[in-house]
Amino acid sequence: MTPLQARQLEDRFHAVWTRAGGAHARDAYADLAGRYGEPGRHYHTLDHIRRCLRDLDWARSTIDTADADAVELALWCHDVIYVPGATDNEARSAGWIRQWGTGMATAGRIAALVLETVHDGIPASTAGRFTADIDLAALGCGRRRFRHNGACLRAERTDLDDQAYDAAERAFLRALLDSPRIFHTELFHARCEARARGNLAWRLAQPGPPGVTGIRR
């Protein structure tokens, strides 16, 4: 990310945070950016957030105006807490917005949207479906980017050896591939579903471990 992109990203956070009624935007961003910049992060970084925001901007005209800022803030916050292998990263990330968003009327709703990035079912709300789909949109990218993302995800899991990582990755990807739909909005289903399924099937057909794609946790 270039210095200009980093500055634009910070300015964008300040704007949406302030619109939502949040206080101490600069302090909140400093904490958020520091967490996304933690050593050992290779995929769950501000670059991932920037790509999510790009997909949000592409879809924004189809998202209810009343939902757009809540979805954006959920995307900003959804990986702010990331401990490799932990099962409560999303819950703790939801807690981050509750802590920093004190006085923000929509903080509870944003926290609920963050929890949709657990991807354990079909989100009940349209805003939740957009949040979940944008988080997974990278599965539908080109094969070269898909491979690069996988190498970054693998690099984060230093707690697992290659065999254990390969088994966990395959289980996660197989569950996605076996689901009736990966993407729950019509917009992202049309844009990403076929290519995502192609990428997942390709990875699962590769013999042996890793560095090709990766599990999210």
From TrEMBL:
Protein name in the entry: Metal-dependent HD superfamily phosphohydrolase
